[in-house]
From TrEMBL:
Keyword Transcription in annotation: yes
InterPro entries noted in UniProt: ECF_Sigma-70_Domain, NTF2-like_dom_sf, RNA_pol_sigma-70_dom, RNA_pol_sigma-70_ECF, RNA_pol_sigma70_r2, RNA_pol_sigma70_r4_t2, RNA_pol_sigma_r2, RNA_pol_sigma_r3/r4-like
PANTHER family recorded: ECF RNA POLYMERASE SIGMA FACTOR SIGJ, SIGMA 19 FACTOR
Keyword list, A-Z: Sigma factor, Transcription, Transcription regulation
Keyword Membrane: no
Protein name per Swiss-Prot or TrEMBL: RNA polymerase subunit sigma-24
Lineage, broadest ranks: Bacteria, Bacillati, Actinomycetota, Actinomycetes, Kitasatosporales
Annotated source species: Streptomyces lydicus
BP terms from Gene Ontology: DNA-templated transcription initiation
GO molecular function: DNA binding; sigma factor activity
Family (UniProt): Belongs to the sigma-70 factor family. ECF subfamily.
Length: 298
C-alpha cells in the first residue's frame, strides 16, 4: 500500500525534485531516498500521503542540492540542466512548460537552495507560504521575504519562449534545412538578434566552452558545426523540457540534443547537450505533474 501511494504521486514528486535540482539523475536519487523513508513510516499515522511525500521529497532535494553545488562550480565549460523528454501535452500547462524549460532552470541555478525551493513550491506548485515554512524549517514571515526576493530575481532574468507546437516545429525545420544547405541568410532569418547558443560537453566531448551570443556569431558557429555531413544525417524531432528539440543520432544512439527557445517566431536560444552522462537517460518519456496544492498535514 505504501508503494501504491508513492507510485500514484510519482510524476508529481519527480517534477518537484527535477525542478529543484535540474538533473533527472539527481531527482531519481532523491525519489529513491524518499521512497526508502516512506517504506518505514507507520501508514496509519499519515492522514495525507501526498502531502507527506511532497514534504519528504522537498527536504531530501534541498539536502541534495546543497551537496552538489560545489560540484557544479567545478564543472568544465557551460552547465546545462539534464534534458528530459516530455510529452507534447506538457505545453497545455503554460506554468509547467515554462518551469521545466532550459531557460528557467538556468535562472533557478543562480538562486541559493532555499530560494529555489521556495520559488518552486510557491510559484510553480502553488503552496501557501505557511505550509512551505513548515516544510523547510523557516518562519512564515521569512518564507514570504525569501519568495519575494527569489521572484524578483527570476523575473528580472527569465526569458519568454513558445512551448513546442506545430509553429515552433516549422521554425526548427527551417533552421535545420538552412544549416544542412549552408544558407547563411536563411539561417540568420530564423535567429533573433539577441540569440544565445550554449553547449554542454562537460569536458568529455568537444563543445563550445562559453555561450555564443548574437545572430551573426551563432549562425557562423552553426554552419561550422554543420560542415560534417554526419551531424545532420540522422536527425529526429522531439519535445524536451516542453521545448521543440532535435535529436542527433550516431550509430543509432543519441549523440547530442539541441533544444530550441523560440519567441515571436524567432529562435532566441539554442541549448546543445553533448555530455554523455546527461544523455543516457534522455530516451525515456518523463511523465510530469504539477497538480494542485493540497493540505500538507503529515
Amino acid at each position: 500500500m505504501a508503494e501504491d501511494a508513492f507510485t500514484e504521486h510519482r510524476p508529481l514528486l519527480f517534477t518537484l525534485a527535477y525542478e529543484m535540482l535540474g538533473s533527472a539523475t539527481d531527482a531519481e536519487d532523491v525519489l529513491q531516498e524518499s521512497y526508502l523513508r516512506w517504506r518505514v513510516v507507520d501508514q496509519a499515522t499519515v492522514e495525507h500521503p501526498r502531502a507527506y511525500l511532497v514534504r519528504t521529497v522537498t527536504r531530501q532535494a534541498l539536502n541534495h542540492l546543497r551537496a552538489v553545488r560545489a560540484r557544479r562550480e567545478e564543472y568544465v565549460g557551460a552547465w546545462l540542466p539534464e534534458p528530459i523528454r516530455t510529452a507534447p501535452e506538457v505545453s497545455d500547462d503554460a506554468i509547467l512548460a515554462e518551469s521545466v524549460s532550459m531557460a528557467l532552470l538556468l535562472v533557478l541555478e543562480t538562486l541559493n537552495p532555499t530560494e529555489r525551493a521556495v520559488f518552486v513550491l510557491h510559484d510553480v506548485f502553488g503552496y501557501p507560504h505557511g505550509e512551505i515554512a513548515a516544510s523547510i524549517g523557516k518562519s512564515e514571515v521569512g518564507v514570504r521575504q525569501i519568495a519575494h526576493r527569489a521572484r524578483r530575481h527570476v523575473h528580472a532574468r527569465r526569458r519568454r519562449f513558445q512551448p513546442d507546437s506545430d509553429d515552433t516545429r516549422q521554425i526548427v525545420r527551417r533552421f535545420l534545412h538552412a544549416a544542412a544547405t549552408g544558407e547563411l541568410q536563411a539561417l540568420m532569418d530564423v535567429l533573433a538578434p539577441e540569440v544565445v547558443q550554449i553547449s554542454d560537453g562537460g569536458g568529455k566531448v568537444v563543445a563550445a566552452h562559453r555561450p555564443i551570443t548574437g545572430r551573426a556569431d551563432v549562425a557562423r558557429f552553426v554552419l561550422r558545426v554543420s560542415r560534417d555531413p554526419a551531424v545532420l544525417s540522422h536527425v529526429e524531432h522531439a519535445t524536451y523540457n516542453g521545448m521543440p528539440a532535435a535529436r542527433f543520432l550516431a550509430g543509432g544512439a543519441l549523440d547530442w540534443l539541441l533544444a530550441f527557445e523560440i519567441h515571436h517566431g524567432r529562435i532566441t536560444g539554442l541549448y546543445g547537450v553533448r555530455n554523455p552522462d546527461k544523455l543516457h537517460g534522455a530516451e525515456a518519456l518523463c511523465p510530469l505533474d504539477r497538480g494542485g496544492p493540497q493540505p500538507w498535514k503529515p
